[in-house]
Amino acid sequence: MHMAYFTSANLMNDRGSWEGAVRDISTEGMFVETAQGFTKGERLKVGFRLRHSRQTVDLAAEVKRVTSEGVGIRIVW
Fold first, then answer.
1. From 56's CA, which of 20, 22, 23, 64 has a CA 20 to 30 Å away?
2. What range defines the domain where residue 28 resides?
3. How far is the C-alpha of 15 from the C-alpha of 8, rounded, in Å?
4. How many CA atoms does the CB half-sphere of 66 hold within 13 Å?
């Protein structure tokens, strides 16, 4: 089950670092709006701040879906 969630995000890999915006989140992944082009299967590190906390969360992720608005990513536990 996905739920709406709005916070800024930083997407990183060996190609660089890009800003994005989390738009929904679940226990398995999230959708991040970004203008950066990624490919399905690409590995990323995603950093974002919990909305009501100063704590930053850094997660390993894999791109599962690419749209014109951004990427759907699966959290790699």
1. 64
2. 3-75
3. 20
4. 10
- What are the CA-CA distances from residue 14 to residues 43, 45, 68 (Å)? 9, 10, 22
Q: What is the pLDDT of residue 54?
A: 82
Q: What is the CATH number of the domain that holds 49?
A: 2.40.10.220
Q: CA-to-CA distance for 3 and 13, rounded, in angstroms?
A: 26
Q: Alpha-carbon distance 50 to 38, whole Å?
A: 24
Average pLDDT, the chain: 94
CA distance 24 to 16: 23
Predicted confidence (pLDDT) per residue in 27-61, tens digit: 999 999 999 999 999 999 999 988 788 889 999 99
Q: Does residue 21 register a pLDDT over 80?
A: yes
CB 46 within 8 A of CB 58: yes
